[in-house]
Amino acid sequence: MKKTLTAITIAVAALLSMAACASPAPAPSIAVKASTVIIDVRSAPEYVGGHLQDAINIDLQSPDFDTLVAALPIDGDYIIYCATGNRSAAAVTRMADLGFTTLTDADGITDASAATGLAIVVDK
Predict the structure, then answer these.
(1) pLDDT band at residue 6 using 50, 70 and 90 as cut-offs
(2) CB-side exposure of 98: number of CA atoms within 13 Å?
(3) 59 and 41 in contact (C-beta within 8 Å)?
(4) Strand (E) positions, 47-101?
């Protein structure tokens, strides 16, 4: 009897773990409006290798970063991402210092894609 209960317990556990693997992906947690500007702050080669759909590229490490960003509407809605989240955090700080207020740090590209629901696309 004890062996039967153990076998049943193992079978139920296996079924539950398979059901957990089949669960749907979580819904995006960052709302992207039609007016939202997505900014990829990685280098141009990184951007060309794969970026979020409709993202513009403004390289944080470019000497022109502040000038290029300052040309954007200060009252816009911006989502910023990079490769791992380090540069996006720095870009958000610099943009806030320039007076931008509606900024979302979406972290690295993979997390940004999951959080926004935007696909990663590759330029051809």
Answers:
(1) low
(2) 21
(3) yes
(4) 51-52, 56-57, 77-82
CB 88 within 8 A of CB 82: yes
**Per-residue pLDDT for 7 more than 90?**
no
Instruction: Name the pTM for this structure.
Output: 0.79
CA distances from 60 to 29, 66, 104, 107 (A): 25, 8, 16, 14
Residue 54 CA to its chain's centroid (Å): 13
Q: Which amino acid is at 53?
A: Q
β-pairing verdict for 120-121 and 51-52: antiparallel
Indicate the SS3 state at residue 53.
Answer: coil
Q: How is residue 10 written in tokens?
A: 């193992």
- Enter the tokens of residue 61: 């490490």
pLDDT at 11 over 50: no
Output the CA torsion sign for 21, 109, 90, 100. Answer: negative
pLDDT more than 70, % of the chain: 78
